Amino acid sequence: MTLALSAADRAALIARHKAAIAGSLKTKLMTIVVVGGLVGLFLYGLTTLETSLWKIIAGFANLGTFIALMLPPDPGSFARAVIFVKALFETIAIAFLGTIMAAILAFPLGFLAAKNVVANRIVHFLARRSMDTVRGVDALIWALIWVNVVGLGPFAGMLAIMTSDLGAFGKLFSEAIESADRKPVEGVASVGGGKLHEIRFGLIPQVLPVIASQVLYYIESNTRSSTIIGIVGAGGIGLYLAETIRTLEWQQVSFLILLILAAVTAIDFLSSKLRFAIIGKRAI
Which residues, 6+ apart, have CB-to-CB distance to 142 below 8 Å? Predict the structure, then answer.
């Protein structure tokens, strides 16, 4: 069944909602300004970075030369391969411990930063801005800082991952808490539960699968990040990767890259299994 409008009704409907259909002048100007600013920034980047199609084509040719130098992957010796594998497990340990410690510390901070848990604006503001400050510094910078504080080695790498992820987890956890359904919380309150009961039985069961999924993803992501921070002396396989690149041992470089790819693939597979076990396949 179709609803037919007469010409007069159609004209009256358009006249009644003319502002919504046409849009305000302010909205149009803001759209023009934003689009113009983005286009200008794009053009500025092209000119400033000296972007050139011919450089890209020449770069692909050079890339082919490097790939040829990397084949076949070869650690050099069995003893060297054992050292690389140990360094890989050290990198995985840095990523795992750093991520878990960050999640543990960020869990209470997420509740402090959530508007539906803490109504005090001052506490909420301080928690949010503190996490923004920590998150605004890259993991590589934190690695340089912690290397100077505690010295070279994997402990500095673990602290760098933990510090970098602390702000990110706090933000993600607080957003998950704020988006949680209020009905379970209201149900706990209706039977006489206090604030802690509301959090324990109303909020945590809802947000825990989301938090666990985020932590599992960051463990995989931080395995790659731990490779980078190892270059500045924070332990792990990154130190050997930087060394082999500096000495032009390209076959060893490709062997290290394959180790990293294999580790990331395995962690991704395991985290997917754990994620499905926690949230269930029906949730996606």
Answer: 159, 160, 163, 164
